[in-house]
Specification:
Number of strands: 28
Radius of gyration: 28 Å
Largest sheet: 7 strands, antiparallel
Helix content: 10-25%
Shape: elongated
Distance between the termini: 31 Å
Length: about 450
């Protein structure tokens, strides 16, 4: 009769357990996904689409659709929004006020009156400014541009009216549309399902009567920068008075110059073909055409620590547009730095503190002064705006050491800008930056797996 070697079995189980734990760690590390879709500086920011049925018709209803931009600093810029959905039944759009569909679709089954749109999945766009008054309703006709509610609350919404046929004529027979999509102007927003909510109420102009919609449903759309574009759209460079080094944006931040594989990916500022390159955009006229740089970003934000006083210190912020096809109207900048709670004065920019962490005031939203510098011109001599910020020192925390004077995060028009690596920041004189090797999770997992194999195999 054979005897079991308990110590051998125990060792095998121990090795199997170690292997299982290592396998779980590897799977966790490899499947680690980014959470950039959640914006910690604006955790409740979204675009809410409210659909209010105002009256019934013989074969459907008339509704007012309103898009509210509840994002603090992200807006929809030209060429504007495109809203789409899929009808639950065989609905058609008889008419629209304040907007229009991009296609009519097949309306051959109708004789006499032809609907505005017969598509199963219509796409709606805003009308342009200057539309005749009989085709307008309140908050329409802005070319699809919706500003952020902090920067411009009166223009943080957009509305249109739609008359729907071949639909239900009561709350029980109406079917809510499905598969809502919002392009602004490209991808980036993901919309949830439409939910029937308590009917909206409206106050009359004299404030003496309240009316309400016959039926209301809401759709919430949230933004992800990774869905919006494949590459970043802006970067940050740094400099200071105490160091001659100018830290540029990281090389190839938003792409690399490669005229062999991607001819025309950028253009030199003094190129004789600049005008023809800009005009060659055609229908895709809003695709960035950037000036040739090492970083290839449409926008660069430069943070310069300018002066040091006894009780104050001064920073100069410059935003440069390298995109030859875009004038950024109603631009905004969000920066995070611990000394914003002691911001004393700001020159030529508007300022509003953002407090995503309640009591901690370390985030500021900056934007241009109307009719002065609220328009960031396209690349060229006028393609930049700048301002200076004066901070009061908190002696308990203030220091120029280890990059403390530089921002933690920077956003331009709601998109996170790429920062230089921390070990490249300008250092104080006689200070040597410590070279540190940063191991990411996958590298650490790989090293752990090698150690396991060496030990047990």
């Amino acid at each position: 009769m054979g005897f079991f070697n308990l110590s051998s079995i125990s060792g095998s189980i121990s090795r199997l357990t170690s292997f299982t734990i290592l396998l779980v760690v590897l799977v966790f590390c490899c499947s680690f996904s980014s959470t950039e879709a959640y914006d910690s500086l604006d955790p409740t920011g979204n675009i809410t689409i409210k659909w209010d049925i105002m009256q019934w018709t013989p074969d459907g209803y008339v509704a007012v659709v309103t898009m509210y931009n509840f994002q603090q600093y992200r807006h929809i810029q030209a060429p504007g929004w495109k809203l789409g959905w899929t009808w639950a039944k065989k609905e058609v759009i008889w008419s629209m006020v304040g907007a229009q569909t991009t296609e009519q679709g097949d309306c051959s089954r109708y004789k006499g009156n032809i609907p505005h749109c017969c598509k199963k999945d219509p796409t709606v766009v805003d009308l342009l400014p200057g539309t005749p008054y009989n085709m307008q309703i309140a908050n329409c006709c802005k070319g699809g541009v919706i500003n952020s509610w902090v920067q411009d609350p009166p223009n943080a919404l957009s509305s249109f009216q739609v008359s729907v046929g071949a639909a239900g004529t009561s709350n029980k027979t109406v079917k809510v549309p499905k598969n809502f999509t919002l392009r602004a102007p490209g991808p980036g927003y993901t919309c949830g399902i439409a939910k029937v909510v308590k009917s909206s109420q409206f106050l009359s102009s004299d404030g003496r009567r309240v009316t309400q919609a016959l039926m209301t449903w809401n759709v919430t759309c949230t933004y992800s920068q990774f869905l919006s574009q494949k590459t970043p759209t802006c970067c940050v460079s740094l400099s200071s008075f105490y160091n001659d080094t100018i830290v540029p944006c990281p090389t190839c931040t938003c792409g690399c110059q490669n005229n062999k594989t991607q001819p025309g990916s950028c253009v030199e500022g003094d190129s004789p073909y600049l005008a023809s390159a800009i005009a060659s955009g055609g229908k895709n006229n809003y695709a960035p055409l950037v000036q040739c740089t090492t970083h290839m970003c449409p926008v660069r934000v430069h943070w310069h620590v300018k002066l040091n006083y006894k009780e104050y210190w001064r920073v100069k912020v410059t935003i440069t547009n390298f995109n030859y096809r875009m004038n950024y109207t109603q631009w905004n900048l969000v920066a995070q730095h611990p000394n914003f709670d002691n911001l004393t004065q700001i020159f030529s920019f508007n300022y509003k503190p953002l407090t995503p962490y309640q009591a901690i005031n370390d985030t500021a939203m900056l934007w241009g002064v109307k009719f002065y510098n609220d328009l960031l011109m396209q690349a060229g001599p006028l393609g930049n705006v700048q301002s200076e910020l004066l901070f009061r020192k908190d002696q308990a925390t203030f220091t120029f050491d280890k990059g403390w004077a530089f921002p933690r995060r920077v956003y331009f028009n709601g998109d996170n800008c790429v920062m230089p690596p921390p070990d490249a920041y300008p250092w104080l004189p006689n200070a040597t930056p410590q070279q540190a090797v940063v191991l990411t999770l996958p590298v650490m997992a790989f090293v752990a797996s090698l150690a396991f194999l060496i030990t047990y195999v």
